[in-house]
């Protein structure tokens, strides 16, 4: 059977903060799907792994593993993890390369052919999509793809819309697949489809404005959710606009978050509020460990790395970047850039390695994820690599 592998940059660089060096780009949310799911759906073959030298030895439960390039042998497709294909994609047929704006974004390996790197020979097929220049482009991808992704997900069966639900727009643009809705939920499908998956719980008074996809086990406990992609097993409250949550995150209290990307195992304290627009309405720059990055965007909130935490009342500035494992609790206003495993937010203090592991051991089982010896080893490697 043909397999799919993703190819990531050796060193994605500051533009991919806070995810570079912490998690595979292939696992990041791109529209309504993770990147590897998007490519798998485009080509029609299962993803087996990603080649991501910036996260050596990556192993986390239920996520795509990092593989050795020497182990990639055809029949297989190798595709660019920084390119997001538009769905549905044209059938690949007998082509050996996928092309976008003159660059190759996918390579087919024949049976027995080993992966030795990108090649430029062989017939090509032009495909639609967008190249992602950095983590901030995950917001652009959400704006570009989520409407179409939710429409594609409307195929198939749906549970009946429960009595007491307020529906605005076309009820046919709403798919409930094992979700539980209390009376008084508002589903507004006038601007896009709404897809609520298995074991999603929606409390009374929640307003959902499409396009929105919410994956299994997530609870929507209050507020308004608009133009959002929410990964599995999250707890969501407040006003969420044009944002993506990778999964397993808590935002259980009031507070606005817009045009943001939230990694896994994040906890946003009560009253955490993000800005997504400068007072000047100008273009937003990121400040990442001394590097200034032009995003070209007018609306951009926070980019929040895995395992980051904020205290109650935290104010996130426009274009904030919170590093993996950062723990913010000093002062209401967060810095523009918070390094990985920061302790407090101001100054140079870092949370201790054993303390980080202890927190993970308390947090992850709350979502029925066991911190195995393998997981702990990876978390320790992650800490050591990002604090060197």
Plain-language structure description:
- The structure is a single chain.
- The chain has 388 residues and is of the alpha/beta class.
- Helix content is 13%, strand content 31%.
- It contains four helices and 33 strands.
- It has a 15-stranded parallel β-sheet that branches. It has a six-stranded mixed β-sheet with strand order 4-1-5-8-7-9, covered by helices on one side.
- Strand 7 and strand 8 (103-109) form a beta hairpin.
- Helix 3 crosses helix 4 (373-386).
- The longest helix has 17 residues, at 137-153.
- The protein is globular, with a radius of gyration of 21 Å.
- 50% of the residues are buried.
- Which spans of ≥5 residues are poorly predicted at pLDDT below 50? none
| CA-based shape | globular
The overall pLDDT, averaged over residues, is 96
Main sheet, how many strands, which sense, barrel?
15 strands, parallel
What gap, in angstroms, lies between the N and C termini?
Answer: 41 Å
Please state the structural category: alpha/beta
Alpha plus pi helix count: 4
Strand percentage: 25-35%
Count of DSSP E strands?
A: 33
Radius of gyration, taken over Cα atoms and rounded to an integer in Å: 21 Å
Helix content: 10-25%
Oligomer: single chain
